[in-house]
Amino acid sequence: METHLHIVPGQPQEFSQVGIQAFSAGAWSSAVVLKDGSLYTWGYAKDGRLGVSSKEAKSNVIHNPRRISVKRGSDGEEVKFLDVEMGNNWCLARLDRNELWVTGNNVDSQLGLVTKGSYCSRFRMVPNIRVWGMAASKSEKYGHSAVIQAETGQLMMAGSNYKGKTGVGLDYKDIDHLRTFKVVDSVDFGGVQMISLGGIHSMVLDSSSRLWSFGCGSDGRLGHKEAEGYRYLYRELKPRANPGFESDGAGCGSVLLSWGGIGEGMRSSGVHMTVKSPFHDTWM
Fold first, then answer.
1. Rg of the Cα trace of the chain?
2. 28-32, 77-81, 227-231, 250-254 — which is least confidently predicted?
3. Are 89 and 47 in contact (CB under 8 A)?
4. Considering the entire predicted model, what is its pTM?
5. pLDDT tens across 21-34, in order?
6. Which residues are CB-neighbours of 230 under 8 A, at least 6 positions away?
7. What's residue 275's pLDDT?
8. Which residue has better confidence, 119 or 114?
9. β pairing state of 90-95 and 81-86
10. CB atoms closer than 10 angstroms to residue 183
11. Please, what's the b/e burial string for 206-243 (b: 16 or more CB within 10 A of its CB; e: otherwise)?
12. Virtual torsion, Cα 278, 182, 253, 197, nearest 10 deg
């Protein structure tokens, strides 16, 4: 079958002249960070997910990439972006000081900060957090959640705790969402290589190339054999290692592993995060 690649229409000359450093596709929007630290966003603009309000954009839809200018402090210093991650209707960004800045919908507190309303119309900094990597869920049906790896190497999550998918050890019947980023401290990962957020479960590859999974285990999606028979009730509230995937530390390379049924959660959009951390000197 013949396929075609299409250049993003109307993209600024800077895309090719300066070069792209990072990009992300959300459920309703897209973003690009250039090598000079500038950020461009486009797509559906409601709730400030593009870093600009619909009123300021004069439309709910921005068809062409638009540069987003963010200034830090009273001196008006313009920030430089290092990375960006689009969620379902919100956005995470890592800035030049490894600061975490967020914008967009915050209905499940997935931005990791307390807001007066249900969204931020412009980028705001999450205080007291420095990050190496980040990921945002793109599932609309099962709530919004975010995960970051802090400079300390700790894994932290915020947002919807549906089916225990944040891995902090609390059932969603006890706490339905985390209002700020909380450390997943039940496991010593010793550093994180990669993270994947599904609709209702999460997976982590640690610095020793051990694979961990947590959240909803329906349809076998967590990969734990002893859970057979618990089709709809089984869940892990804390990260649990998947036996058989330990390695000698050489890493998983380009191996792709998958299992589980094709249920509602499996149809939800997932996202992968690859982090550059003090534990690893190369990207996977």
1. 19
2. 250-254
3. yes
4. 0.77
5. 999 999 899 999 99
6. 217
7. 45
8. 119
9. antiparallel
10. 12
11. bbebbbbbbbbbbbbbbbbeebeeeeeebbbbbbbbbe
12. -150
